[in-house]
């Protein structure tokens, strides 16, 4: 296409063949490399635009975190870094009883991320280990894939074999009753070496690219606990360093890879814990947290911050001139997506090309004349090229799916831009509103890019895409409903402020977000600034249905990493805060503002923490009762032994055997309803209990 030249722009971005050559180079290089080495490799494949290539390749690697930077335009590839490192697998009792080993997420990030786990191969004492098939309910297998992200575990199980994929596609809303998993046949090995619970496998990477490994037994008592604890501390430091430098990252695999990179030499050696044992059992600093509709590892007890608009992190660093225009208007839209919209225009049989631009650019965004004309000229140019070869008959299979994708893509952009431009204080919006919208947009854009083609995907792939769109539409409708409720609450609040009395500015109200650490359970509460921490303690107890049976303290955000350890082990029996880090319960919200404190941690007993975030402030002419305006999730009973235990009980309640479910139900109490939160009931409880002000 010569359009960019016609309109005075240089085509200064990598094309598809050059990108593929870059990824091929990174997959094969087994030692550190310089920029010149990549360029030489790419030029052999495709030598076009070599004057621009160096800058584009460098920005692409760094922006996408494709390799570890060591300075001076030199990097270390994942293959070079992880190809020589040992790691640990600890078989579960389920695996030992059944004589199997499920690779699952155990080899992350020590194997090529492009490989599915069922493609890995293992050897024992020089002999290849055979495979067997293990049947069961999908929920039994999900924990073996959760490090990829709990939301992706069903996809990994589905993609293990064609029968699973078909079973999942039959009903996109319910899991099949039974699936099968390709697992290692370990019966003879477990028997010959008398493998018992607590024993481990030390795993050596033979071939990172091909996912080949060899196993070696390590007895339960072979490694000293002090050495294992030293590894766990290095791992915690590695993860927290990756959070600081990269934020939540693009996926859990990236988080883990960079944790090893930042975790110093101790994390990259043995003795070591199995990664899953460390993450789910051995650390109290790292936890799984909600990140929109996905999950990430994050600081325990802390919420991943929201965006203030649509995420542009997925836009290519080497943006085309067309993409640059959309980027300037805060619209993360790729050129491939635009071309898919043009195919959709042809499928609809429409005549006016302005309809394409109206779908791409919301009414709330007013393009200037130059950008508007440039985009229309580009659309006309591509449309002219596509029309020559377009066949409605050939496009019938995927045209309807592309149309649905375009509609949800347009709806998300329109909603996001309205929220950014509208009157609402975004702190009133549901948690992670823009993260969720960005994730829906990213996944929908991926569908549209896949469908920017004259060739229809295979039938099985179409079914997967169709089911994925159903899920995205459902998620969009859910978040839209929550946003509408938040808008209603915000407007009612503003109206009450305007009509509440003759004078203004008498009372300043604070919107607070209260989130239970390690769980997706939160409440938003409005209280006046004279509210003390002692009153806030009673508010927390009330909105989470707790009974004030344990000790509590409030700690400032800036002191979260300043705990003093007592005892000799890495996880001492007592973790204490120095006195200057603990806030006096008579401190008011107003005083906290004067000290520029925007977040607090509330510790209740030894197992529960609540993150308190101060959101927006509003003036009201008169005092109004403390009230809850939004929330999600059923709060755990306070006597449950922490968030990990609570999540395990919920999982048992949903997927356990009948006897196990009865036990879980007894543990939670007859009044507990999983996932339920009713803001009206919450406010009735607040009204009944807040008499708090007089009591305090």
Number of strands: 21
**Ends: how far apart?**
73 Å
Please give the largest β-sheet: 6 strands, antiparallel
The number of helical runs is: 27
CA gyration radius, whole angstroms:
28 Å
The pLDDT mean sits at 86
Q: Give the low-confidence spans.
A: 1-12, 499-504, 558-575
Sheet-strand content, in percent, reads: 15-25%
Q: Label the overall shape.
A: globular
Taking strands numbered 1, 2, ... along the chain, how are they ordered across the largest sheet?
16-19-20-14-15-21
Counting helices, strands and paired strands, the structural category is alpha+beta
What is the domain total for the residues? 5
Roughly how much helix do the residues carry, as a percent range? 40-55%
Q: What this model shows, in words?
A:
With 696 residues, the protein is α+β, with helices and mostly antiparallel strands. It folds into five domains: 3-76; 87-218, no CATH class; 225-299, no CATH class; 321-490, no CATH class; 503-562 and 575-633 and 677-695, MM3350-like (Structural Genomics Hypothetical 15.5 Kd Protein In mrcA-pckA Intergenic Region, Chain A), CATH 3.10.290.30. The chain is 45% helix and 16% strand. It has 27 helices and 21 strands. Strands 16-19-20-14-15-21 form a six-stranded antiparallel sheet. Strands 4-10-11-6-7 form a five-stranded mixed sheet, with no helix packed on it. Helix 19 packs parallel to helix 21 (459-499). The longest helix has 41 residues, at 459-499. The radius of gyration is 28 Å and the shape is globular. It starts with a helix and ends with a helix. The relative contact order is 0.07. Mean pLDDT is 86; it is low at 1-12, 499-504 and 558-575.
């Amino acid at each position: 296409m010569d359009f960019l030249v016609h309109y005075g722009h240089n085509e200064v971005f990598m094309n598809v063949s050059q990108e593929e050559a870059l990824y091929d180079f990174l997959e094969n290089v087994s030692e550190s490399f310089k920029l010149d080495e990549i360029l030489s490799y790419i030029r052999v494949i495709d030598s076009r635009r070599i004057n621009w290539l160096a800058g584009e390749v460098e920005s692409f690697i760094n922006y996408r975190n494709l390799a570890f930077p060591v300075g001076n335009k030199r990097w270390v590839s994942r293959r070079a870094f992880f190809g020589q490192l040992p790691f640990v697998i600890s078989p579960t009792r389920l695996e030992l009883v059944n004589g199997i080993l499920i690779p699952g997420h155990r080899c992350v990030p020590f194997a090529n991320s492009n490989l599915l786990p069922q493609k890995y191969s293992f050897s024992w004492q020089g002999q290849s280990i055979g495979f067997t098939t293990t049947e069961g309910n999908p929920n039994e297998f999900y924990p073996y894939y959760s490090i990829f992200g709990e939301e992706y575990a069903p996809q990994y199980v589905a993609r293990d074999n064609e029968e699973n994929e078909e079973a999942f596609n039959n009903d996109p809303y319910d899991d099949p009753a039974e699936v099968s998993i390709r697992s290692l046949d370990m019966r003879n090995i477990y028997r010959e070496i008398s493998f018992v619970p607590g024993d481990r496998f030390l795993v050596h990477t033979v071939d990172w690219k091909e996912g080949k490994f060899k196993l070696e037994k390590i007895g339960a008592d072979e490694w000293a606990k002090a050495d294992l604890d030293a590894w766990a501390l290095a791992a915690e430091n590695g993860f927290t360093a990756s959070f600081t430098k990269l934020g939540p990252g693009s996926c859990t695999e990236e988080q883990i890879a960079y944790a090893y990179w930042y975790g110093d030499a101790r994390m990259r050696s043995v003795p070591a814990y199995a990664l899953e044992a460390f993450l789910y059992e051995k650390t109290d600093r790292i936890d799984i947290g909600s990140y929109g509709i996905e999950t990430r590892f994050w600081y325990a007890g802390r919420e991943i911050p929201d965006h203030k608009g649509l995420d542009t992190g997925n836009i290519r660093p080497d943006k085309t001139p067309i993409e640059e225009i959309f980027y300037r208007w805060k619209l993360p839209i790729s050129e491939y997506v635009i071309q898919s919209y043009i195919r959709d225009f042809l499928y609809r049989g429409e005549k006016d090309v302005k309809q394409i631009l109206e779908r791409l650019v919301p009414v709330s965004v007013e393009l200037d004349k130059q950008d508007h004309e440039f985009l229309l000229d580009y659309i006309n140019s591509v449309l002219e090229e596509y029309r020559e070869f377009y066949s409605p008959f050939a496009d019938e299979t995927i045209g309807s799916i592309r149309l649905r994708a375009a509609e949800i893509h347009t709806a998300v952009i329109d909603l996001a831009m309205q929220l950014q431009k509208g009157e609402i204080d975004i702190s009133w919006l549901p948690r992670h509103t823009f993260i969720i919208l960005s994730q829906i947009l990213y996944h929908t854009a991926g569908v549209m890019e896949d469908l920017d083609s004259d060739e229809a995907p295979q039938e099985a792939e179409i079914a997967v895409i169709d089911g994925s769109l159903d899920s995205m539409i459902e998620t969009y409708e859910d978040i839209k409903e929550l946003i509408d409720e938040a808008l209603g609450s915000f407007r009612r609040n503003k109206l009450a402020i305007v009509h509440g009395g003759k004078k203004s500015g008498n009372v300043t109200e604070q919107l607070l977000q209260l989130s239970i650490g390690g769980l997706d359970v939160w409440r938003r509460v409005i209280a006046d600034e004279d509210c003390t921490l002692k009153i806030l303690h009673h508010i927390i107890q009330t909105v989470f249905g707790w009974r004030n049976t344990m000790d509590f303290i409030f700690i400032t955000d800036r002191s979260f990493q300043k705990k003093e350890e007592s005892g000799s082990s890495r996880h001492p029996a007592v973790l204490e805060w120095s006195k200057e880090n603990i806030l006096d319960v008579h401190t008011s919200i107003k005083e906290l503002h004067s000290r520029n404190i925007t977040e607090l941690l509330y510790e209740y007993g030894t197992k529960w923490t609540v993150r308190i975030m101060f959101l927006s402030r509003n003036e009201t002419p008169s005092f109004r009762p403390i009230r809850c305006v939004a929330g999600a999730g059923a709060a755990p009973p306070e006597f449950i032994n922490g968030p990990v235990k609570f999540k395990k009980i919920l999982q048992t309640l949903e997927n356990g055997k009948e006897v196990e479910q009865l036990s879980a139900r007894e543990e939670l109490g007859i009044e507990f309803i999983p996932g339920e939160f009713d803001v009206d009931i919450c406010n009735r409880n607040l009204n009944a209990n807040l008499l708090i002000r007089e009591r305090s």
